[in-house]
Specification:
Helix content: 25-40%
Strand order of the largest sheet: 1-10-5-12-3-2
Oligomer: single chain
Distance between the termini: 53 Å
Strand content: 35-45%
Structural class: alpha+beta
Order of helices and strands: HEHHEEEEEEEEEEE
Radius of gyration: 21 Å
Amino acid sequence: MKLTFCMSFLFLSAIFFSSCSGDSSKKSNDETTSQWFETGEWSKGLKLKPHESVDQEEFKKQYQANQEGWDKAFAYLKSGELAGIAPGRYEIDGENVFAIITEGPAKEFDSTRFEAHLNYIDIHYVIEGKEKIGKAPVASANIIQEYDSAKDIAFYTADGKYYESSPEIYFIMFTGDAHRPGIKADDSAVLKKLVIKVKKVA
């Protein structure tokens, strides 16, 4: 009887300490990622700030898997000549990283939709003007237009959070982030915007 009790006690203790150790390890990993992200060394001197909604764990994984591509993306973002670049598509690193610049009026809310991609991660940056941008997990979104592999896009409805974007910050939308860009934020006559597409490799 005593032996059975002791064995049960040891078994439960092992589970308890294993659980505590796992929680401690996860907390330690989260803190390490947060510290790494907060240093901003990965941005190579970019003065713009990433929005607080950026998934730091996913960014760290993607950056470490494709550092050369992300470094080129941030170098393009800090070039300082974006206002003078005409709308169009621009190669940065072949199909690994490229930029799309658009210019025109922001859209009314009902004229926009949530979208998501499978092969590319988006950096969204407003060069001139303002916009609202929505964000929601793809996992909780409802698909309304099936994935188009040629355009790397699918469309959804979702209950998302909405943020205001301006030339001081940028957003990073991963493949698990449904996003709803281009929503009119104020009476700005022109919205000039840059989206840098970075190939997902991990």
